[in-house]
Design brief:
heterodimer, A: mainly alpha, elongated, B: alpha+beta, 22 helices, 35% helix
Amino acid sequence: MRTPPTFVAYRVTTVLAAALILVIFGAGLGGLGPLGELHGLTHQAIDWYRTITGVQL
Amino acid sequence: VLPPILRRLRSATLALGLAGLTGSAGLAVPALASSTAPAAATAASQAPVLTAIHASHHRGYDQLIFQFTGSLPAHRSAHYVSAAAPSRSGGPVPAAGSARLLISFSGTRGPGRPTVADVQPTRRTYALPGLIQLVKVPGRTGTADFSAGLARKEPFRVFARAHPSRVIIDVRTPYRTVRVHDYFLSSRQIAAGQPPYARAVSRRVITSSRPFRALQRLFAGPTPAEHARGLRFVASGATGFTRLTIHRGVARLRLTGACRSDGAAVTVASEIVPTLRQFSWVRWVKIYDAAGETERPAGDTSSLPDCLLPPHPLAVFPRILVIVVTIATALGILLGLFLTMTGVVSGLIRRPNVITPAAYQQERVAAQPVTTGQFEPDSAWPAYPFRQIRADLGRIISATGARYQKFWNWPFGPVIWVLLTPISAVMVAFLAAAAVTAALLLALLALVMWCGAALGAVAFAAVLILLRGTDAAWHAVIRTEASCPRCYHRTARPAYRCPACSALHRELRPGRMGLLARRCACGKLLPAMVQRATWRLDAVCQRCQEPLTRGSAVLRDVRIPIFGDVSAGKTRFLYAGLNSLIQTARAADIDFGFPDQDAERDANLALDLIRSGRDTVKTAFALPTALTGRLGSGISGALVHLFDAAGEYFRDPQWHDSLGFLDGGQGLVYVLDPFSIGSVRDQLAQHDSDALQLENAAAGDPEAAYGRVVSRLRDSGVPAREQRLALVVSKADRLALAGLDLPDESEAVADWLRRMGVHNLVLSTRRDFAEVRYFAVASMAGAAVGTHDPGAPLRWILRSCGVRLPDRPPAAPGPDPRGTGDPADREPAGHDRPADAAPEATVPHEPAEAPS
C-alpha cells in the first residue's frame, strides 16, 4: 500500500525544519548567522577548557 | 565668587587671549615658553608650601591649579618635553598621554624655596578631555617638578594669583571629544568572587583613533574617585602598549615592559579585551608580549601571550584524563548525531510504522465501539497529524534507542570495568554524550513536528468550522436532503462509493480524514465535501445502499406522496400532473429532466399514455419507487420525488408500517374519486347511468380512506399539522361528461364537496393539516388545459417549498416535452378514452397483484 504523498511531504518538511534549526544553532556557536551571539558561549567554553588543560582548541 | 556674567566674560577673554597668542600648538609653545620662562617672583615672607592640586575642565580649556600656603614659588615654569626626556633627577618623565608638560617650581635659597607637603598620591589620573595624568617627578631639593600627560600638545599659559597663593595653568582643548569606556577590575567583585570582574568607566577622548585613546586612558588608571570605588588597573607588569593595529576585526597590540600573570585569573588582558571590543569593528584581540609573541598570531580568534595565560590548575594525569574525556564526549556527540540520523532514516524511510486505513479503523472501533444503528468508521487514510505523527515519532525513537542499546553490550563483566575505571569513565562519558545528544535532537524533532501539528491543527480547525458551517448553512437554507426512492430513507449526507474500489464512504465530510479531499484505502483521492462529491461520485442510500439520484443532498429535495383509495385515479393524476408540470417548466424556460435513464424511460411510457388519452394500468401492488425528476438546472435546481402506491396499501392497516414515504413528504396529495361519493352516484344515476358503468369508480368511502392515512401518520409520530395537503378531486372531465361540472377555485371545490355530503372530510382536512387546498383536476386529459389543470396541486406544493415555478400553466398547450414539436404527436385535450386502447399493450408497470 503506497504511502500518501501528504505523509511524505509532512515528514520531509519537519525533518528539514529541524535540521535547519540545528544548523542555525551550530552556526551561531561558530559566530555566524542570526544566533552569532552564541559565539560568546563557545569562547567561554574554550577559555575554560584552555584554563584547566592548557590545550588550545 | 564671580557672578555668572563675569565668569563667562573671563572665559571668553581667556579663550581670545589664547587664540591671539597662538595660531597653532607648534608655534605657541616657544612663545609661551618664553613668556613663562623662569621669572622672578615677588618675595614673600613665608616659604611656599604646595598643599593642594586641583584640575577641572572649562569651556575650551582644562585648568590645573597648584595651591600654596605662604608665598608663591620664586620660579615657576612649564614646557613640553619629549617622552624620553629625563627629569632633573635623571629619570624619565612618566605620565600617560600623547604630550607631556613638565611643570617646575623652584626658588633661591631662603623663604622662596617651595616645599611639597601632603600632596598625595604622587600619580593621579583625571577624566578630563585634555589632562590625562599628573605625576610628581622626583627632583632635587628645593624644587617641585610635575609631569602632566595630555591628550594632545596644545597651547597653554601659566599665571599666578595671590590670596591664596596659586599657580594656574590653562591648557587649551580645541577639539571635539566623544565618550568611550575603559574597563577596570573591581576589587570588590573579585573579592566576592562574583563575575564580571571588569567594570566600565567613562572617558571623553578625541574623536580620532578612539581605540588607541581608550587604551591610553586605560593605562592611565582610574581616577581617585574611581579608585575609592574599588576600581583598579591591573597592569600585569606592563607599562604600556605599542603598535596598536586593527585589521578585518582583529586588533593587535604589543605590551611594553614586563608581562606576568602571577597565577592570577585576571590580568591586564581582562581590561584590554573589553575596552577594545566595545568598538563594533573589533571582534578579536590579539595581545603580544614585549618580544612580539602570542599564542595564536593567525586566524580569527583572540590570543594572549604565554605570560598572561593562567596556570594550569590540574596535575598532569588529571589533565590528560580531562582531555581524553573531552575527546570522548565530542565523539559521543557525533555518535548521538549519527544514531539520530539513522533512527530518522529507519523510522521514516526504511521501516516506517504506517498506520493503514484498516488499522486506523480498528483503533477507532476499539476506542469507540459501534453500537446499533451506527456504522463503522470509513476506511480512508487519516490526516497526518491525527495519527501518523505519533507513529513516526515512536518509530524514530525506538529505532534510535535500539541502536543505542547495542553500544552498552560491553565485552567484559562489571568487575573488569571497575578495575579499568579510567577507561570506564571515558566510555561512560562517550555513551552519556551520545545519549544526551540523541535525546536533545529527538526532542528538537518532536518539538518541530508537534509545533507543526499544533499550527496545522489551528488552521485545520478554522477551515473545518468554515467548511462544515458552509455545509450546514447550505443544508438549512436550500433544504437539501438525500431521499432514497426505494427505502424512503432520508439523510443529510448519503454514502458514496469509491470509483476505484467501490468501498463505501459513509462519513464523507471535512474531518480527520481530510478537509477538502480524502484518500481512500485504495489510494484514490475523493472529494470530502458533499457539494463536490455528488457530481463526481456515485451516491448510495445509507440504509439500503441502493443508488441515489445524482445531485442528492446538494439540490433542494421535495417529496410528494400521493395517496387515495383503490381506483381513485392516483397514477393517472401523477402522470397528468407531471405532464402539465413539464409543459409549465418548458414554457418558463426551466429545465426539466430525469436524473437516470430508467426513470426517464418509465416516465416517457406513462406520459405517452397520458398524451394519447389512453388509460394507465392498475398500479402494481408493490411498494412504490419514487418517480424522480429534476426541475431547474445547476445548484438552483430541485429534485422532485413523486410517490404513488397502490390503494390497497392504504386500506389494510397491516401495510401501514411500510408506507414510509408518507413520513417525509413536504406536501401530501389525497386523490378523491368523485364517483365514489354517494350523492354524486345518486345524481348520476338519475342522469346518465352509463357514466357509472364507464367509470371504474373507487368503491370505498373517501372519508374512510383519508382517515386511515391520517391515523397512520399520527401513529408514526409524523407532525401532520406542519404539512400541506392538496385534496384532489379527480376525473373532473369525466364528471362533466356525466353532466356535473366541478368548479376550479379551492373554496368552491370545498363547497361542492360539502354539498355532495363529504363535509366531514373537508372539516377533517382543515383540522389535521397546516394548510389545505382543494383542486378539481381532469386527470384524464392528455395535456395541460385552462381548467382542471392536473399540474396545479403539484405546482402549489412545489412553490410552497421554494421551487421557482410559474403559478399558472402556459395559455396554450405547449410543445411536446420530448421536443418533437409535431402537432400530430400531441393529443388534443380530449376527454374520451380511445375504445381500442389496450392497457396491457402499454403497461409501464408490472401487472397488479392482489395483496397477500
